[in-house]
Write a structure and sequence with these properties.
By secondary structure, this protein is an alpha/beta fold. Helix content is 22%, strand content 31%. The protein starts with 6 loop residues before the first strand and ends with a strand. It binds inosinic acid and magnesium ion (MG). The site of magnesium ion has 4 residues, from β5.
Length: 176
């Protein structure tokens, strides 16, 4: 069976493309004359950051951080480990975190606290998706793509057991 047929479509390729362009335009306006670092959280944000960066006409730089949360596959434990750190210091830089989804918020809480110790000029958060019903800590989101219900979604970078990241739209896994 085709990968796409295993999913119930939620957000189409066209909807994603339109929203990402809008977010890029807003970021471009907000970061004029600032040293911007787009910080992608691996691996889920790889497709989003790639499209978003092409929608921002500024001389930005791109870096990545790998985070993993101990515990069950579909539930964040709040105990987070850095599996791959930034390549460069962010001191005095304007950092924009690019994340796939804020669910409980525990991963972002950890990352925000960790980045704050590195003396950046500013740290803001851009996330493609947000499940507000699951929040366990208040995370300020500066740029939001789509707010979604509490359903487990995959595609456009998001995975289930490391699969489905390459599906070009966002959908809910069909069971059975
Ligand atoms: P949080 O710490 O609960 O906010 O979520 C941390 C991570 O869990 C996210 O960055 C995603 O990688 C993953 N995650 C949460 N919800 C989903 C989902 O619906 N699909 C795929 N991954 C998810
Ligand atoms: Mg993630």
């Amino acid at each position: 069976m085709k990968l796409a047929q295993q999913l119930e479509p939620l957000i189409s390729t066209e909807q994603i493309a339109r929203r990402v362009r809008e977010m890029g335009a807003q970021i471009e306006r907000d970061y004029q004359n600032k040293e911007l670092v787009l910080l992608g959280v691996l691996k889920g944000s790889y497709m989003f950051i790639s499209d978003l960066a092409r929608s921002i006409d500024l001389p930005l730089s791109i870096d990545f951080i790998g985070l993993s949360s101990y515990g069950e596959a579909t539930e964040s434990s709040g105990v987070v480990k850095i599996t791959s750190d930034l390549a460069k210091p962010i001191e005095n830089k304007h950092v924009l975190i690019v994340e796939d989804i804020v669910d409980t918020g525990l991963t972002m809480r950890y990352l925000l606290d960790n980045l704050a110790t590195r003396r950046p000029a500013s740290v803001k958060l851009c996330t493609l998706l947000h499940k507000p019903s699951r929040a366990r800590t208040r995370i300020p989101i500066d740029y939001l793509g789509f707010q979604i219900e509490d359903r487990f979604v995959v595609g456009y970078g998001l995975d289930h057991e490391d699969k489905y990241r390459n599906v070009p739209f966002i959908g809910v896994l069909r069971h059975g």
